[in-house]
Amino acid sequence: NAEVHGETDLAPSYEIDMRTLLQGVIDFRRRIRPIIKEEFARLANSQSPDVLYVGCSDSRVAVNIFASTKPGDIFVMRNVGNIVPSFGESDEGGMGAALEFAIGALKIKHVLVCGHSNCGAMHRLHSGRCQHDSPHLSNWLRHSDRSLELLRSGHGLAGSESLSEPNQLSQLNVLTQLENLRSHPIVAEAVHDGRLQLHGWYFDIANADVFRYNEELKKFVLLNTDEAKKILPTFDQAAHPTHEDPLAHSERWH
């Protein structure tokens, strides 16, 4: 194996994927670590995120980029298809444990399910999930069967007509997983008590746009500055005291 001496560039014998990761660590040490070292020191012994983000494992969907988050902001649970098995179902993905830890221990106030365009899992579900070459994936995607039923029965969302069927399915799947979330007693109780809010987002990869599900309009709407201003008052501002404009554009760290 090639040996890294100091912080020089890596030897070319590494595969390009690992080379990118390792070079990224060196770049982090050079440019970013000096800026956020104190922040990590503060977080070393505890965390107190307000949001549990349930997203797809897709490498293109990076919430820290499109939501401009920093370490400690969100508790992340990612899997193939941003799926939440219903309560009582086989929980091979560990979602039940994540919910218990996030809501019970971390006292998070929001759960956000985020789907995205051109999702491989939704393409697989749309074309037929039961394929012999990947039995685990086929079995996992059963938790999204309800989404496919809605699409096939013509229950697409308003405003989604211009989307491909797999992308319509991806949006419907966000709503299916929100319903699955509500089947968990720990979620239902927290929502009933006003301690927890559930949210649905959709990330359009090609345009780098984020959409949120609007309960009143029954569709996904672009999450821009005007839309954010409309929904900010619905959050409990007392639980998030701040003296800065939450819509002001600023780079959290470089």
Write out key terms for the chains shown.
disordered N terminus, 9 helices, single chain, 254 residues, alpha/beta
Characterization of the model:
With 254 residues, the protein is of the alpha/beta class. Mean pLDDT is 86; it is low at 1-8 and 237-254. It has a 6-stranded mixed sheet, with helices on one face. Helix content is 39%, strand content 15%. The two termini are 31 Å apart.
Structural Rg: 20 Å
DSSP summary: helix tally = 9
The average pLDDT value, as a whole number, equals 86
**In order across it, which strands form the biggest sheet?**
2-1-3-4-5-6
Order of helices and strands: HEHEHEHHHHHEEEH
Low-pLDDT stretches: 1-8, 237-254
- Give the overall form: globular
Protein structure class: alpha/beta
Give the % helix: 25-40%
Question: What percentage of amino acids are in beta strands?
Answer: 5-15%
Could you provide a short overview of the structure?
The chain has 254 residues and is an alpha/beta fold. The chain has helices at 16-43, 63-66, 95-105, 120-127, 135-140, 145-152, 165-182, 185-192, 225-231; strands at 51-56, 74-79, 110-116, 197-204, 209-214, 219-222.
What is the element layout, followed by pairings?
Blueprint: H1 16-43, E1 51-56, H2 63-66, E2 74-79, H3 95-105, E3 110-116, H4 120-127, H5 135-140, H6 145-152, H7 165-182, H8 185-192, E4 197-204, E5 209-214, E6 219-222, H9 225-231
Parallel strand pairs: 1-2, 1-3, 3-4
Antiparallel strand pairs: 4-5, 5-6
